[in-house]
Design a protein that fits this description.
The protein is mainly alpha-helical. The chain is built from 6 helices and 4 strands; from the N terminus they run βββααααααβ. It has a two-stranded antiparallel sheet with strand order 1-2. Strands 3-4 form a two-stranded antiparallel sheet.
């Protein structure tokens, strides 16, 4: 697997680096992370179906997007592509970028939230819970791309109690390590 570790600094002083694994996607793959990619491409104006299948139409859209951003046009979605695709969303936001967040939250949220493109109270609560689980300030704002594409262990359960949204085994997933830009929550209680 490909691993890219980048240091994270905030202001003049270095902070503790927090590294996340980021889903690397290319043609032939399928699943919820492809669906997240497709919703983000749709949010950027590309006309494609968010079906979770990385086929020729998705690859063409990725290559066009990469070319428009001045990054390597290889059809592979890694940290550079994810970073440029990302759109900050918060309560009150609407559209395809919100659907991407909702798909991601449903990988860990039980019961699942609707994928309707409206960032309402249930989506905000799911985001806050996700942020708390990750040791971040729970502000309910999705303002860091890794929140959508973190390739860490995911437990998803369908409405029937059986595992849903089957994920590839960790050994087979292609991931890149990339640091978060959000500050970890202080656990000391000191200000």
């Amino acid at each position: 697997s490909l691993h890219v570790a980048l240091p994270f600094f905030s202001g003049a002083a270095a902070t503790t680096e927090t590294t996340h694994t980021v889903q690397m996607l290319n043609r032939g793959e399928d699943g919820p992370f492809v669906k997240i990619l497709q919703h983000l491409l749709r949010a950027r104006g590309f006309a494609l179906l968010a079906d979770g299948i990385f086929g020729p139409i998705t690859e063409h859209a990725v290559r066009r997007f990469q070319g428009s951003q001045g990054i390597a046009v290889d059809g592979i979605v890694g940290p550079a592509t994810w970073t440029r695709l990302f759109i900050t969303v918060r309560r009150g936001s609407k559209g395809e970028a919100v659907k991407a967040v909702q798909v991601r939250m449903n990988l860990r949220q039980a019961p699942p939230i609707g994928v309707d493109g409206v960032f309402g109270p249930r989506t905000e609560q799911a985001v806050r819970e996700f942020q708390l689980d990750q040791g971040l300030d729970a502000d309910g704002i999705v303002d860091d791309f890794w929140m959508l594409v973190d390739g860490g262990t995911i437990t998803a359960t369908g409405s029937d109690g059986m595992p849903g949204l089957a994920m590839q085994s960790a050994a087979r997933r292609k991931v890149a390590k990339f640091p978060t830009t959000k500050q970890p929550r202080s656990t000391s209680g000191a200000s």
